[in-house]
Amino acid sequence: MDPIAISEQIERILRSQSFASKSQLRKLLEILFKNMDSQTTLKPDQVIKELWPEETRTKRSADVATEMNRLRHTLESYYNGEGKTDPLTIILPNRAAPAPDGTHETRWIVAQPRDVEGPPPGSRIGSRITVKVLGAIGALAGLATVSYVAVMMLAPRHHPKFARLDGTALRIMDAQGKELWSKNFPGGFDAAWFYQKGLASRIWFEDLEGKGHVSVLFAYSAAPSQQRHSSTLICYSDRGKEKWRWTPGRDLPELNGSPPVFLTMALGVLKATSKRPPRIVVANVDPWWPSQIAILDSNGKTISEYWHSGHLSYMTLADLDGDGREDIIATGVANGYDHQATLVVLDPDRVFGASSEVQAEFQIHGMGIAQERLRLLFPRSDLNRAALFTYNDAIEPAVQHGNLRLTVLECAAPEGCPIRYEFDKNFHLIAAYPGSDEFRSTHDRFYQKGKGAHTLRAEEEAVFLRLRCLVGCKSEFAPVAQTYNPAAAFEKGWITQTNPNGVWSYGYSSGFTNPITLYDKTVRNGINGPNAKYWLSSLVDTGTSPAAEYNNGPAYNDGNVDFLANEFLLVAGIRGHYSDLIFTAPVGGEYSIAGNFRGAQYGIGTVVGIVASGKVVFSSSVTSVGQLVPFNMTLSLQADSTVMFSAGPGSGTQNTGLSTTITRPCALTDQANSTSTGEITCSGWQRSSTVPSKQR
């Protein structure tokens, strides 16, 4: 068995629909794959460290076993469905059960050809099985073996689909892993540059001409030498013929005669519209500043360019507002504004000019005034400033479930003290919080002694919500949306036995639009795990149903229920009742409602729906464990009107997960505050600014 074939099979599984919504299981599979060569020495502690880096003190071997069991079930579901014809089977042996000879399985993961008879996916593989699994590609073991890059679009067989670096060669493969062609680069590859964000950000596969031929865009940078050179964007045909080359950047007088060295940090292709063909977007950076975002046509000709006095090294293309047109979303550091982390959003049809700066030494001249759609500055934390870090940095913008998420790093090591930010489709801020214990622990260690000794306070965290808006807002600061999350709010009402619980109520009914009776008792009886908490009715309780349920603990999977950590569930009644979660609007206005229902039990079969002001606005069904049924809508609600989320009986078991966040923009006169659960509230306190007036 070829290691390349194993690698391709893992990639096929990771990009499948079965694993599309299971980020934790994808991460676990990647960890196991990475350690295929060292399985006998792989210990649960190492898996915990990689799978839950922020929870190493609370996770145990039992949690790893639970996740392995979830992964087995999901692999089995995959191979029974979309993976039926795959050439290889990935199997997770049962390490706990002894073989007939009394020995214990030491392997975590095994691959075998599909035509080799053997146990089904997920079952134990005895020590006598002779299928030998060759080593897989490890993590960053030098340029000799760089792992495959999965492309973002499906391509027909024999069209370029994968790429890898092999010594001084770029190798291009089709969807089946067959090498189509290769190119040799005598100058080698800049390992540090390629590994900084991976090969995926340096290569792109796209039908640029709309003729069914997939071109390969490759941003090449040679191995370091005494004379540094800018990277080169090379376009190859699907047969490997070089079509054109493009060099980023230009010589600017602001660089004071220093020879520019621009490296392409991110690459993307705008989808074709009825009016425009595909366009190439390239984000390029001189080692410190400035940055260039260039738009190219399919022939490598520069159409337009935007210049930024900073370091925009991350980029994504996304249509957040659903108007059919993608925006260019870039993040990094704004040198001209106190080296603060920044977010820049550009309309692809208005990419020109240079950003306006308050620090004259960073102003780029002769380009005209840029027309950014949005330009935000993220506050540098007190830790960042006091510890004498020269900047904070916004990285990895990504669109998930219709929202934009990114991370701001507040320190240099070891993990960057991340602060997580999330925006809705209108770029209203809906979350800002420390992304791990690292920020809090680093902060508290730094301030543990001296006159100003203190731990991280709530008012310090609230500062994260004050994003200065240079362009694209009606106010000094970025608009903030008040958020409501039923999982975050559940505990407070359960502990105090209060129903309604703020804006949330829990009850049951006989149908989507029928009258609701509120639950009147709380229990924790060990069903569905030791951390499962219930709202029930003393009148219709049958087998702990119908119910509203919350898992206040780690993921729990006993082969019957698949309960995620901190997950909220609606449990349809065994005797036909619907379980309902009700949101009551505190004030009138436009509310964005996004999330999903999820199959949280094996053999599930429920109907799900959303009812707003008495009318069904969404309905569907959940028929398999792990299945996600997404929803995303904007509703105009009057004060005290309701939105009901409901799960009713269908053809199977009852446990239905519900993940949702409801957002409403705060008024411009409101002061946004963050609660201990991560929700955002609008206090109504008049904002005041201590920041100098904006300069556009």
Describe this entry's structure for a reader.
The protein has 696 residues and is mainly β. It contains 9 helices and 40 strands. The strands form 10 sheets. Strands 23, 26, 27, 28, 31, 33, 36 and 38 form an 8-stranded antiparallel beta sheet that branches. Strands 25-24-32-37-34-35 form a 6-stranded antiparallel beta sheet, with no helix packed on it. Strands 14-15-16-17-22 form a 5-stranded antiparallel beta sheet, with no helix packed on it. Strand 34 (606-612) and strand 35 (615-622) form a beta hairpin. The radius of gyration is 27 Å and the shape is globular. The model is unreliable at 116-156 and 685-696 (pLDDT under 50).
Average pLDDT reading = 85
Give the overall shape, derived from the CA principal axes: globular
* Helical run tally: 9
Total count of strands: 40
Give the topology, please.
Layout: H1 3-14, H2 23-34, H3 44-51, H4 61-80, E1 88-91, E2 110-113, E3 162-166, E4 169-173, E5 179-184, H5 191-197, E6 203-206, E7 215-220, E8 232-236, E9 242-246, E10 263-270, E11 279-285, E12 291-296, E13 302-308, E14 310-318, E15 327-334, E16 340-346, E17 374-378, H6 382-386, E18 393-400, E19 403-409, E20 418-423, E21 429-434, H7 437-446, H8 458-462, E22 468-471, E23 481-484, H9 486-496, E24 504-509, E25 517-518, E26 521-523, E27 532-536, E28 547-551, E29 556-557, E30 562-563, E31 568-571, E32 578-584, E33 589-599, E34 606-612, E35 615-622, E36 628-637, E37 642-649, E38 655-665, E39 672-674, E40 680-682
Antiparallel strand pairs: 1-2, 3-4, 4-5, 6-7, 7-8, 8-9, 10-11, 11-12, 12-13, 14-15, 15-16, 16-17, 17-22, 18-19, 19-20, 20-21, 23-38, 24-25, 24-32, 26-27, 27-28, 28-31, 29-30, 31-38, 32-37, 33-36, 33-38, 34-35, 34-37, 39-40
